[in-house]
Amino acid sequence: MKVVIPVAGVGTRLRPHTHSQPKPLLHVAGRTIIDYVLEPVVKLNPEEVIFVVGFMGDQIEKHVRAHYTFPSRFVTQEKLLGLGYALYQAFREIDSGSVLVVLGDTIVDADLRSFVKAGSFVLGLRQVTDPGRFGIAEIREDRIVGLEEKPDHPKSNLAVIGLYYFEDARMIKAALDEHIKSGKTTRGEVQLTDALERMIKTGTNFVPFEVQGWYDCGKKETLLETNRHLLNLMAPATTCDDCTINPPVYLSRSAHVSNSTLGPFVSVSHGANISNAVIVNSIIGDNAVIDDAKLTDSLVGQRAVVKGANGVVNVGDDSEIDQR
Fold it and tell me: Which pLDDT band holds residue 237 (cuts at 50, 70, 90)?
């Protein structure tokens, strides 16, 4: 089985952090987003993992090759025309066989072995409270009978969450080819949902698979929410002599903290230096410096410096705030 992971998005909603690194390499609960995505994929022992890259894709390739040994290939998406177009480019590299597709910027809590055994064609779903924001599946008698992208009048609250299995790659490849040739776009993009709907109408039986959890990393608020969830699943943080930790907290062993209070829901990455600070519900990047500050609901980028701040900050890599 091959695995396709689209990671070409620009991540505009997470700027300024995505000005200097792609969204899948942002940290949450002590690891990059892509590491959380790849952890269950590695357990499947894939034949090959194909990454669809774009914006700063060289950084993703460098990270993958440095930390993983599975066979990998990197396909560049020159035009950001939507998920359907990204997968169209990936499947041009695949002749046949089974394929698992996993989005590279969301974290899914699901047993992937059970997922790929659920049927010949499987879609991951999750109940949502705002179905108009997602691709929505209509289910009848344990099969998916219809899909619609961001519908004005949703027929269900089951969102398609970016997890797909195709036993025969040739079928989705043909559907994407036909969809591209049709010239159809939805909200200006080539949507995968439209190609899947084409397959359903021609008789392909898609099995619904509702996942246990689905954690978005697409904007600051949801990244912090995902950080909170993952921290709740982790072992207690390493203690430090000159600080107070209110769990859950992730504290890198290489970070230095003095006369400070961390938590709850704080992640402190490699090499960070924190002094005379109180930090709650925040993510602190590699080698960041924080001094004499009280932060909440904040993102602090790599090598950023924050001094004297009080409240919410959103500071990109190599930036500085000094309010002393």
Answer: low
Q: What CATH number should be reported for the domain whose range is 234-322?
A: 2.160.10.10
Helix (H, G, I), strand (E, B) or coil at 54: coil
Euclidean distance between CA atoms 161 and 131, whole angstroms: 11
How confident is the model over 96-106, as pLDDT tens digits?
899 999 998 88
Structure tokens at 82: 């939507």
Answer yes or no: same fold for 2-221 and 234-322. no
Which residues have C-beta within 8 Å of that of residue 233, sequence separation ≥ 6?
Answer: none
144-154 tens-digit pLDDT:
988 887 888 88
pTM for the predicted model, two decimal places:
0.91
Pair 196, 88: CB distance under 8 Å: no
Going from N- to C-terminal start, the domains of the chain cover 2-221, 234-322
Write down the CATH number for the domain with range 2-221: 3.90.550.10
Residues 315-318: contacts with CB within 8 Å, 24+ apart? Answer: 315/16, 316/15, 316/16, 316/17, 316/19, 316/20, 317/16, 317/17, 317/19, 317/20, 317/21, 317/285, 318/20
Q: Dig out the tokens for 6 from the structure.
A: 């689209």
Q: Are 175 and 190 in contact (CB under 8 A)?
A: no
pLDDT band at 81 (very low <50, low <70, confident <90, very high): confident
* Residue 204 and residue 91 in contact, taking contact as beta carbons nearer than 8 Å: no
Closest to 283 measured CA to CA, from 270, 307, 304, 301 = 301
Q: Which two tokens stand for residue 136?
A: 């929505």
Q: Band of the pLDDT at 195, cuts 50, 70, 90?
A: confident
